[in-house]
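Dear support,

I submitted the protein below through the web form. The confirmation email said the job was done, but the results page showed an empty box. After a refresh the structure appeared. I'm attaching both so you can tell me whether what I see now is the final result or a partial one.
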Amino acid sequence: MATVGAIVAAAGTGSRLGRGSKALVRLNGRTTLARVLELFLALDEVDRIVVVGPPSRLESAEREVQTLAPRKPVVVKAGGESRQDSVRMGLAALGDCDFVLVHDAARPLATAALVRRVLAAAMETGAAFPAINPRDAVKRVEGNRLVESLDRSLVVLAQTPQGFAYELLARAHREAADAGLVGDDDAQLVAATGHIVSVVPGEPANIKLTTPEDLEVVEALIREHETTRVL
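What the results page shows now:
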């Protein structure tokens, strides 16, 4: 049976959000990190988890883990200067496994169905990420000048979790480090090795906390869902 590890990228400083570490922002009483950890802890497919947290707030991240009383191994490690560095450190801490899921703690609304969809595609093809199509017209600009209109059917908005064969992702990070390649996400690094990365349907509600406006939307969605669940 394949072993699956998960890396939770939680070291972001959240400068645009203006609330300190995004992983430790509370939404309806619970941190984004706790919400993401609960998701992966509840999945039987995931064997172990590495949280790559903010170096200045590792104790807070560790307390969040302890509060959940996890029944599978969860390790908290300090992240690096960039998300790419943090994921590479997470891979080293995770140790050998067959497949790895990489998810941003700043996306607390991902569902179990989404994780399983990504994992199934990664097990089939070696690499997969979820994405949604843009709803608005997509333009390429230079400064304040329109350069061209892009075909929306050829553009997607990438999300996490992203899933990979462990050795493939580890090799992609090694080669990126050797070449000085900085990618937007892990899917880009894997694609740079020449490996095909498959795309699966994402979720519109799987919003990444980046700005105060994102925070308002995500918290409203969480409150609506949790109020409905209680009722």
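Response: this is the final, complete result; the empty box was a page-load delay. The first strand starts at residue 4 and ends at 9.
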